[in-house]
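Can't paste images in this forum, so I'm doing it all in text. The chain is below; anyone willing to post the predicted structure tokens underneath?
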Amino acid sequence: MSTVSALPMTRVMLRLHRPALYVWAGLLVVAGGLLLWLYGPLTDAAASAWRQWNGCSDMTGAACAYDQDAILTYKSLTQYMSVAVNLVPFLVAAWAGASLTGREMESGTAQLAWTQSISPARWLTAKLALPAALVTAGTGVLVLLHNLVWSKGRGKIDTAKPWTDLLTFHANGPTTVAFALFGLVTGALAGLALRRSLAALVVSLVATGAVWAAVGVARPRLWPSVTTVTDLTAYSPRSLGLTVDEGLLTSTGARIANPYCGSSEVPECRDLYDRLGAVGYYTDSHPFSHYWPLQLTATGIVLALTALAAVLAFRLLKRHTGPLTPAKERR
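Text version of the structure:
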């Protein structure tokens, strides 16, 4: 696309979707402000309160004074912000399906633009490029701030979610940015295919939700796990973090299901393990050091699906419009 034609299309995009731009900016300001509050004074207050609470064990019979409000506020707000960051891709998908292409296809303004000023391929490129840049930048900022909040509270706040928590996992890393881009492109594809804004909104939400859920299910198997063996005197297998599989290990090296009896120091459990030939527990799991390999693998998969959706969108547009030439280019 030439600079002369790109600039007017960008201005048209900003003018046409000005309400969505205002909502996006407002969302970033509010969410970013809350995350900065969490990162600064609220994390400090909650960490101090937990130190006070943990110090109560050293007090014998004395009243324990700690800032309970700081602990509860931190716990609630971090949960809400994790949910909010994870909802961003769905908001993007809903907007893209209903407004980015679906509304213009439904009203016929897209077809008019193709014959008057810009080719269909350039129209779709402009439709995707500017929103993709804004979505990537905005979602990236929220993810970075969430990661800073979580990292600062790690090890200092007892109620902080572990990295294995699914909402925390996505809110802390680039998978959320990838999901947002997938929602954007899938919404545009749905609008082109269905040509109905409401139907495209529903389909884009369902598609984004399906990919989000599928990645969550596949997450433990996106990277080779680490196997640990635990003695049967323990009451349960020991996991390093994110568990992939666990059970009993026999003397022959075979793996069998865990009957969840408990420690072998309990006579009934010891007799059961002897009958099964079990010599220990095994656990396949991921330690915290696997966080980024899992993140980047999941991000790559979602971005590959996003690229596939973009290719399908351009192929669908070409099939529907053919070699359509705008009036400006004919002159």
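Strands lie at 226-230, 242-250, 255-256, 278-286. The chain has twelve helices and four strands.
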